[in-house]
Amino acid sequence: MLDASTYYGSTIALLTILVFASWTDFQQHRIPNILSLGGILLGTALHTWILGISGFATGLAGAAVGIGILLPFYLRGGMGAGDVKLMGAVGAFLGPHNAMLATGLSLGAGGLLAFIILALRGGLKPLAVRYFNTLKWLLVSGKLSHQSPEPGEVAATKFPYAAAIGIGTVVALWWLNILQDMTRFIFSMIR
Predict the structure, then answer these.
(1) Using one digit for the tens of pLDDT, what is the confidence trace for 158-185?
(2) Alpha-carbon distance 45 to 62, whole Å?
(3) DSSP string spanning the chain?
(4) Which of 42, 65, 86, 108 could form a disulfide with 96 if both were Cys (CB 3.0 to 4.6 A apart)?
(5) Is 82 within 8 Å of 30 (Cβ atoms)?
(6) 161, exposed or middle or buried, with CB in 10 Å at 0-12, 13-18, 19+?
(7) Is 14:169 a contact under the CB 8 Å cutoff?
(8) Are 88 and 68 in contact (CB under 8 A)?
(9) Are 17 and 62 spatial neighbours (Cβ–Cβ below 8 Å)?
């Protein structure tokens, strides 16, 4: 039987990994393997400790889901390998079904953060022009074409995606009532 302190301790470990990953991504534009690969190992080990061999499979399946969903973005140059591995760590902690939720929410958070960065740095107009030209070309020729951002354009710059993964994961934990339950448990221990 799983006790609450172990369950919430694993959540705190995941949140700690995400905070440090976001911090190093902001500072150095990279996520150290000790956080991402270590997170995959720790999440899988915790699942194994709690559930035995089925927990091992759950941890690995969760990591595979997180990595698998973000891998195409990495292969197309849209994000770094550290981001993909970090999502694998999240998946190892959450398991495959919850990893899908966290990954989807992280992609949404990434899109929102990208929009905010574009708006703050004046990159929305060039983006709109590019998409308008793509639509115009599609309507005229019937063919879809992609126009990449010009070098130096705001849309061509990278941003630290670990923050989006952190936000998406926290929203997933909230959605799954894990954060609310953990908060109640911590306050019950304090009283």
Answers:
(1) 789 999 999 999 999 999 988 888 888 8
(2) 12
(3) ---HHHHHHHHHHHHHHHHHHHHHHHHHSS--HHHHHHHHHHHHHHHHHHHTHHHHHHHHHHHHHHHHHHHHHHHTTSS-HHHHHHHHHHHHHH-HHHHHHHHHHHHHHHHHHHHHHHHHTT-HHHHHHHHHHHHHHHHHHS-----PPPTTSGGGS---THHHHHHHHHHHHHHTTHHHHHHHHHHHHH-
(4) 65
(5) yes
(6) buried
(7) yes
(8) no
(9) no
What confidence tens digit (pLDDT) does each residue in 104-153 have? Answer: 999 999 999 988 988 888 888 887 888 888 888 778 777 777 677 777 77
Place of tokens 């150290």: 32
